Amino acid sequence: MRPQLLARHGKPSTILSDSEIGFAGNPNMLNRLKRRLGLSLSRQIQGAITIPVVSLGDLLGTAKPEIHLTIQRYEDGMLPSEQAMVLLAIVVATAPKSVLEIGTFMGHTTKLLAMNLPEAIIHSVDLPLGFIPEHGNAIEKKKDDFHLIAKRQVGREYRGTLYETRIRQHFADTAVWNFKEAAEATLFFIDGSHTYDYCKNDSERCYELCRGKGVFLWHDCDDTHPGVVKFLLEWRALGRSVVRIEGTPIAYWNGNLG
Prior knowledge:
Layout: E1 4-9, H1 18-21, H2 27-37, E2 53-54, H3 56-60, E3 66-71, H4 81-94, E4 98-102, H5 108-116, E5 121-126, H6 146-151, E6 167-171, E7 187-190, H7 196-210, E8 215-218, H8 226-237, E9 243-245, E10 251-254
Parallel strand pairs: 1-3, 2-9, 4-5, 4-7, 5-6, 7-8
Antiparallel strand pairs: 8-10, 9-10
Helix pairs in contact: 4-5, 7-8
């Protein structure tokens, strides 16, 4: 049975034609439907073909998580709604008491994590507010997505909501951040800088934090982020069974299972 989805719509639902309802198996029609619903178009994921693909249902097993998801028009840099559904299903099924999100940006996902884990503390880290993209080479590790860094309003989506009291916002470059500030975290969503250096740094610091006994999720395991794919293949070579969740650029590894 698929997870029950409780979607909160701020506007009346879009009326779909009969042809759009029958989009299954037709990627062009699916993309047209996504545009009408304000969802993002699928990215190419051929570059991650050597990472095994597992369906969300297989990962959930007998779990039937109930999630809460706010639907809105896609904004560049946010986690698309259809991918947020997948992420939240795993998060709710895992039920951690503390989460570490790397890459707050506007705070869309941060808010959703707090919304779906009513008893958990959500740690989220983003670059310092005074960070200047042009000076990003002050620390040796290479960054990317400078266009998003320049326009971010860190935590905008959760500020002033009832969820804010359980969100711990950290401002730091993860290349030098003390990860022990999120010492209790056992679930990690890594969606900061997508270069190889940062993906490796962030993942390994999280691994050290939980001593390998945690649940890891990475965004942008796809053709446009070869650094992420390269690092995840290295982890697989170490015997860590990283997989990509079918139909998404989200990678997953449960360190509790090996």
